[in-house]
Amino acid sequence: MTKLDIHQIRKILPHRYPFLLLDRIEDYEADQWLRAIKNVTVNEPCFQGHFPHRPVFPGVLTLEAIAQAAAVLASLSLGKEAGEDTVYLFAGIDKARFKRPVEPGDQMVIDVRMIRKVRNVWRCAGEAKVDGKLCSGMELLFTYQNL
Fold first, then answer.
1. What is the pLDDT, as a whole number, of residue 58?
2. Residues 124, 57, 104, 45: what is their CA dihedral angle, to the nearest 10 degrees?
3. Cα(45)–Cα(32) distance, rounded to whole angstroms?
4. Where are the domains of the chain?
5. What is the CATH architecture assignment of 6-146?
6. Do you find a cis peptide bond into 14, omega within 30 degrees of 0?
7. Which residues are the active-site residues?
8. How far apart are CA 81 and CA 13, in angstroms?
């Protein structure tokens, strides 16, 4: 089992507060799969407006967390850390589905699986679960660019 803490994740992803959406990597196998954790707290800035009377973690941020997990998998598979000259970018989202809301206090378990890699473009399947129940899932295409 290979775990990465927040300090190691910050070396891989260029995202920072409030947009770094992963708290730890539980395990991974390069070029195959990765499992990440996102702890959702009531202190998330999105809850100020989504929704003040009943906080719900935005579905698009759940998809972003899945995409960040896929970018970590790609980076670990390449053996490259993100730097000021490299950025991972969405190229497409397919089959996005939202099955149940994510609320403060939930711990999202994010699983991504590599489907295919052609040159510098990856296709991954990803899903987020809370208590073993599917919250969202998608397939995503992404690439990286050297700036």
1. 98
2. 110
3. 33
4. 6-146
5. Roll (3.10)
6. no
7. 50
8. 8
